[in-house]
Amino acid sequence: MTSIATEYRVLALSGSLRADSYNTALLRAARDLAPSSMSLRFHSGLGDLPLYNEDLEQGSLPAAVHDLHQQILWSDALLIATPEHNASIPAALKNAIDWMSRMPDGAGMSGKPMVVAGASPGALGTVRAQLALRQILAAVGADVLTKPEVMVFRAHERFDGTGTLTDPFTQSLLVDLLAELARRIKRGL
């Protein structure tokens, strides 16, 4: 019997627009630590999305909205890394979710497996941002995994000057998170 290898397509979204973001670095580490059955594609255009405005839904969608929509439809799952802004998620990330929730198909977010992670130089990591993000994703019907949790606190001590994740414990948490995501995707296929 011949088995066909399945590649799980995961769209990686960083909620940070900063070039040297710890959250983008966390996604790069996830790509490097992902199981061989998983392919991560990065979407770096959250800053290109116009602020959600229902008037912009008339006629052709803005190109950045259409692009994100297509990438979410392509994916089997999403991996979102979010910083914490004022005890919640960044406006750019919330804006992207608002846009996608307005697509006729909900951008395929309903029932789509998603995992959340985050990194911050603060002592609490991204605890409050992740709680807020999980609540928002639940409202749009996403299938958000609750465990394991990856909340990287004191991120400046866990990444080197080039943005490479050097902390073995955080690396192991990412490996566990991605393995659980792969299991969830497989159950849904």
From TrEMBL:
Organism (species): Nocardia uniformis
Protein name as catalogued: NAD(P)H-dependent oxidoreductase
Domain annotation NADPH-dependent FMN reductase-like: ranges: 9-155
GO molecular function ontology, one term from the record: FMN binding
InterPro entries listed in its UniProt record: Flavoprotein-like_sf, FMN_Rdtase-like_dom, NAD(P)H-dep_reductase
UniProt-listed PANTHER family: CHROMATE REDUCTASE, NAD(P)H-DEPENDENT FMN REDUCTASE LOT6
A Pfam family that the UniProt record links to this protein: FMN_red
Record GO cellular component, one term: cytosol
